Amino acid sequence: MQTIRLRVNDKVYKYLMWFLSKFNKEEIQIIEENREFISVKDYLSKELIKVDKGTIEYFDFDELDNDLENTIRKYEA
Prior knowledge:
Layout: H1 10-21, H2 35-53, H3 61-76
């Protein structure tokens, strides 16, 4: 599957979205680039750079489990 980005004039947008909605989910998936999407994309890009540089901090399963338990306790209270 390929991914494309388009910049579309407001006048054309609703017609394009109507046209794209005629395809099923296996043929075309519309990915909206809202603020959350862009924020996650930026975060993951920065993490990938750390992996490539070898500066990322890894956790083992025990550390992850402890961190998750602490997070759960924090929000249960």
